[in-house]
TrEMBL record:
GO biological process assignments: xylan catabolic process
Pfam families (alphabetical): Glyco_hydro_43 (PF04616)
Site feature Important for catalytic activity, responsible for pKa modulation of the active site Glu and correct orientation of both the proton donor and substrate, where: D143
Superkingdom to which the source organism belongs: Bacteria
Family as reported in the entry's similarity comment: Belongs to the glycosyl hydrolase 43 family.
Keyword annotations of the record: Carbohydrate metabolism, Glycosidase, Hydrolase, Polysaccharide degradation, Xylan degradation
The protein's name: Family 43 glycosylhydrolase
One GO MF term: hydrolase activity, hydrolyzing O-glycosyl compounds
Annotated source species: Candidatus Faecivivens stercoravium
Length: 489
């Protein structure tokens, strides 16, 4: 039986900033491309994966769709391709909108197929009557999103507006590199922007205007505490327009709704946080917090939100995840919890072996309740990591498990499981408590856990569990463990 779990792509694949679109009966995912153990954002070329609309367990690799050096602005391959978006234009062709790392320009590529490959088409620019046809540079053209409306009009959304929790300054090394490349220093924007494009998909019809207020401009707007930061995403649902974005809290994807594509947006709420912050009032994360980016898609009558999580103790190895959502009759979307079963259409079957790295809850005594990539504790806490095996792809597992670590999965359906087996390695002497809840108030089993091996070793525990259940492991003892698989019998 084929199943889907989070992350929904193979564990060796790192496609964050995921924008899902339904084209020709398949859901295509367009995003940036990280790598295991990355040292920069988006080090790879753009790739895409797709799945049949009625079977989101069956993802197919479509290959590289656009190379970093395909744009004349990056012929020397000095910059990385950041978050893109794709739309089907009025002419029936598919247009890829993208940006490079803090480079003040939005590029466009085109293809006859949603699976690519895409070819360079041009840069978004003003008409000659506005600024002499110059490229779109102000307001930090960043994280483009694009909508081809039902009337054929095309709208471009973008922006980068650090504020409050995400106030930032350009790193001196980045500044020096940009100066060497003769790249104009970016002027970070203050809001999320929108501009209508001509049918050529490149030329603006007007000056850009504010779509969503940034963190410094939310007073009295209804966006207080959730001002625009980055990660523009746009969808039309019925006759309403839903703008999804990352707020200045960075770990959450929020949404706003309007009757018009380019104005009048009203704050709706948070759809997902990659640490479940805000869910039912939660203030402590269930997973290491990090930046977030994603979008919505309807497939086979069900709406989903795509987002990403951090791995490898850095901000540069992100993996795509997804959860089903419900758009209520009044248009509202309730915040959803992050899970291990994601696109599966229900709980995972509680039998056989699963990769430990599909955990949706990983915390330790050093897990922070805020995002701080400069704090080295992020690289030491309990986390998912990857190891080169000599094979085609890396091997993923959880590392840094120690006293106070908690690893959790939501959800499984069990048919009277009696034994749970962990594949572990390391040096650890203590115990593991297994429960159906985070607090450990619904025990399922557990016992002593003593391991001293550099090789993967199986350790089994008796358990008693039936029906739908979450699964949590709480560790106590001395030493440190790696966890590769979780198996049921």
């Amino acid at each position: 039986m084929k199943q889907a779990y989070n992350p929904y792509l193979p564990l060796y694949e790192y496609v964050p900033d995921g924008e899902p679109h339904l084209f020709e009966g398949r859901v295509y995912i367009y995003g940036s491309h990280d790598r295991a153990g990355g040292v920069k954002y988006c080090e790879g070329d753009y790739v895409t994966w797709s799945a049949p609309e009625d079977d989101l367990t069956d993802w197919r690799y479509e290959g590289v769709i656009y190379h970093r050096t395909d744009d004349p602005s990056n012929k020397e391959d000095k910059m990385q391709l950041w978050a893109p978006d794709v739309t089907r234009g009025p002419d029936g062709r598919y247009y890829l909108y993208y940006c490079y790392s803090f480079y003040p320009e939005i590029g466009v590529a085109v293809s006859d197929s949603p699976a690519g490959p895409f070819k360079f088409y041009g840069h978004v620019h003003y008409p000659e009557s506005i600024r002499g046809g110059a490229t779109l540079q102000e307001h930090m053209p960043f994280d483009p999103a694009v909508l081809t409306d039902s009337d054929g009009r095309v709208y471009l959304y973008y922006g980068f507006a650090p504020a409050c929790e995400k106030e930032m300054k350009i790193n001196p090394q980045i500044k020096e590199r940009m100066q060497k490349l003769s790249i104009r220093m970016p002027e970070f924007g203050e809001n999320g922007m929108v501009v209508e494009l001509e049918p050529d998909m490149l030329t603006t019809k007007e000056e850009p205007r504010v779509c969503i207020p940034g963190g410094h401009h939310t007073a009295g707007t209804g966006f207080e505490g959730h001002g625009f930061f980055e990660a523009s995403s746009i969808r039309k649902v019925g006759d309403k327009y839903y703008f999804v974005y990352s707020s200045h809290k960075s770990h959450e994807l929020c949404y706003a709704v309007s009757d018009k594509p380019d104005s009048g947006y009203v704050y709706g709420g948070t759809i997902v946080s990659n640490g479940d912050i805000g869910l039912d009032g939660r203030e402590t994360p269930v997973y290491t917090l990090g930046n977030n980016h994603g979008g919505m898609v309807e497939a086979n009558g069900q709406w989903y939100i795509f987002y990403h999580r951090q791995t490898n103790g850095t901000e540069f190895s992100r993996q795509g995840c997804a959860e089903p959502i419900e758009i209520a009759p009044d248009g509202s979307i309730k915040q959803v919890e992050i899970t291990s079963c994601g696109l599966n259409g229900g709980p995972l079957v509680g039998e056989g072996a699963y990769p430990a790295a599909i955990a949706c809850h990983i915390t330790s005594e050093t897990t922070m309740s805020r995002i701080d990539y400069n704090d080295p504790v992020m690289k030491r806490q309990t986390r998912i990591t990857a190891e080169e095996t000599g094979a085609e792809h890396t091997e993923q597992y959880i590392t840094g498990i120690e006293k106070g670590s908690k690893v959790g999965y939501k959800y499984f359906t069990f048919d009277g499981a009696k034994t749970l087996t962990l594949t572990v390695r390391g040096s650890f002497a203590g115990s593991a408590a297994i429960s159906a809840d985070e607090k450990g108030e619904k025990p399922l089993g557990g016992g002593a856990l003593s391991v001293d091996s550099k090789d993967w070793t199986e350790v089994s525990f008796p358990i008693e569990v039936s029906g739908k259940s979450a699964l949590y492991f709480s560790f106590d003892g001395e030493g440190s463990l790696d966890l590769k698989t979780v198996a049921f019998a």
